[in-house]
Amino acid sequence: MTDYVRGLAHEPTLKPERPFFSSGPTAKFPGWSLDKLKTESLGRSHRSALGKARLKYAIDLSRELLGIPDDYLVGIMPASDTGAIEAAMWSMLDPARPVTVAAWESFGNVWIQDAVKQLKLPNLQVMTADYGEIPDLTTIPQRNDVVFTWNGTTSGAMIPDTDWLEPGREGVTINDATSAIFAQEMDWAKLDATTYSWQKVMGSEAQHGMLILSPKAVERIESYDPAWPLPKLFRMKKGDKLNRGIFAGETINTPSMLATEDYIAALEWAKSIGGRKALVERANANSRLVKDWIEATPWLRNMVADPAKQTNTGVCMVFQGDWYESLSAEDQAGVPKKIVKLLEERNVGYDFNGYRDAPPSLRIWCGSTVEQEDIKRLLPWIEWAYEKVKNG
After folding, report:
1. What is the pLDDT of residues 150-190, one digit of tens each?
2. What is the distance in angstroms between the CA of the first residue and the CA of the last residue of the chain?
3. Element (DSSP H or E) covering residue 315
4. pTM for the whole structure
5. Which domain CATH number covers 181?
């Protein structure tokens, strides 16, 4: 590991140049700086010709990079990925139809709570699994509408394929893809409503989400009027028809043009390095470094046992071994916190503790904006910090 020999107690000397390993907001793209952002739209109305043009450009560039089919709609939504997926759920899920919500980490469980406590869907199948596992999705009836999270942001477990979704299935699919899209290929033909936020794989500013709708999703929205009240932020119809202006840059409420310009800069960077293919390759290479290191480290294991289900973005790892397992639950929870604190104090790595609701763990973001060399430099420091925590 760079200049570090396993098991030695001295501090490594090389530090990551960009010590940003948070799973959201994530690291900015390499070479990012504020002067790379265009500012002509700042201080202007988002409904001006310029404002709408920049919002439409962000939509068009997203479509191009993601390879979204021409007959799908792409729109900017308020309230990040949360706003986008809840708008889809509240606008598309019909109590008269059977619905399955599948979850295997924290955010998927929030969508379950929406379905159970807020929408109170009577024909609801809930499927859950522990951190690191995925429920048996093949048991979901094809007539059911289904809500799922492509990649578990807080567990590091992703779906290995979409074979469980039959072509031409009766139900609609609502896919929370926020920590997967741009780093993992989407099977658009099987996806009806797909959502994500700007602040995951693209490393852009948060608060705005994206909603991608298939023709089947549009038909559902236009043919179904929910019985429950819809907040303005979720309303996508004008009369009986979908408001297509939302998918041409006419946002439901006022967006941040500064955040929009930041997202555009990230999209342009992605295009300049080779587009989606290059983004996926960068995430794969980054995550392979971390996964190989976990395999070679006896006191760690990947939270996800099945390699086919291990993410290439937020790689999660838990502790093991006699020393760790001899600790009380409280002391076990303190191990990753102490490691992160030691490295943050030295400006080596920030925000790589596991999610608060997950088992005690570390989570290293390996998305496309992170540089391999920075990961290589981080890992020996984690080994050093672990030994320091273990030996008091």
Report:
1. 999 999 999 999 999 999 999 999 999 999 999 999 999 99
2. 23
3. strand 314-319
4. 0.96
5. 3.40.640.10
